[in-house]
Amino acid sequence: MHGLEASAARVVELVAAGRATSRNELAVGLGLPPSTVNLRVQALLSAGVLVEQGEGRSHGGRRPRLLTVNPGFGHVWTIDIGSRHVRLGPMDMTGSLLATHELPISIDTEPTLLLGEISAAVHALPRPPGRWLGVGVGLPGPVDVVAGTVTLPSRMPGWRGFPAREALQRLFEVPVVIDNDANLMALGQARRGAPGETLVVVKAGTGIGSGLVVDGRLHRGRDGAAGDISHVRIPAGGDRPCSCGNHGCLETVASGAALVAQLGLHSTSDLLAATEDVTVMTAVRRAGGLLGEVLATVVNFANPDAVLLGGALAGCEAFVAAARGALYERCLPLATRRLRIDTVFGGADAGLLGAGSLALESVLDEALRGESR
C-alpha cells in the first residue's frame, strides 16, 4: 500500500488504542507532516470510519477536536485455520475481538468441503450489529496473496493451487483476504506493538511457521516464502523424511507433530497435558533448543527488535526457555543486547488478531477508494 491508503490502518489503530486522539497527536505518532495527516484523517471522516466529537486540551491555540473510531461502521470476521482446529470470531473496527470460537477440523479434508464446514459454522453464529464488511483468513501453508491461491503446501494434501480466496468469497458473499497463518500472526503483533519494529514471529504448533516484519512492514518475499524456517535442514534431523520431500528438516524434530509421533501420543493437546512427565519435558526442551539454534542465524542476520513465539508449543514455558537459552548461547552478544524474546500478544488468538488486521486494512483501502471516486 502506498500514498493515502498506506497509513489509513495505522491512523485507525492509533486512535482506537487511545494513543492519538487528535490530528496533532497523530502527526507526532506517525512521524508525518500535519498536512499529510490531515488528508488521511479527512478521508477517513468522510468515509465514516472516524468521527470527531468533543474537544481536547488546548496547548496555546484552538482546542483540538477529539477523534474516535466509529464502531457502527461495521465489522469483519477473522478465521485462523490450523491442521486440527479452526478459531474464528468477529472483530470490530477498533481491532477488538468481540467473541471467539474453536472447532475441530482436519486439514486433510477436501478443500471445498472443509471451507464449506467453516462457512456454515460462521453463518450459524450470532452476528454483531452493523455491516459485515469482509473476512480475513489464515491458512497453514504458503499463499499467493495476489492470486488468492495456496502454493506448494507440504502439509495440506489436495490444496496445491487451490483458489481459496475465490471459494471463500462465494461462500461468504463479502470481500475476503487470505495469507499464511504465520505471516498473519506476525502482522497482528506488528500492528499492536511499537511502530517501525523488526520482528521474527514463530508459530510452533503441529508444524512450524515463521513471519518476518521489517521496519513495521510484513515481508513476504518474492514468492511468499520469507520466514519459512520449518524446512531448514539441521544435523539433529538426520535422514528423517519431511513432508516437504527433503530429509532432516527442523520440522521433523522440533514440531508438535514430530514430538507427538516421537512420544507415541495422539495430539499436541495430549503433549501439553503431559508436561509433568520427565520424558515429555526432555523432548519438549530439546525441541525448543533446536528451534533456537535455527533462529540464532536469523537473529544474527536480521538483528530484530524481538523474537516472539506463538502456537501451541509456546504455551509450554520449558519450550520457550530452551529456545531463549539457545539464542543467547549462539547469537552475537550485540544482536541479543536489546533483543526481546517473549510469547506473542493475544496467546491462542494471535492468529485471529493478524487475520482481522489484514481484513481491516482491506476494508479501509476500499473505503478510501470509494471516497476518491
From TrEMBL:
Pfam families: ROK
Gene3D superfamilies: 3.30.420.40, Winged helix-like DNA-binding domain superfamily/Winged helix DNA-binding domain
InterPro entries attached to this UniProt entry: ATPase_NBD, ROK, WH-like_DNA-bd_sf, WH_DNA-bd_sf
Organism domain of life: Bacteria
Family membership: Belongs to the ROK (NagC/XylR) family.
Name listed for the protein in its UniProt record: ROK family protein
Organism from which the protein derives: Kutzneria chonburiensis
Organism placement in taxonomy: Bacteria, Bacillati, Actinomycetota, Actinomycetes, Pseudonocardiales
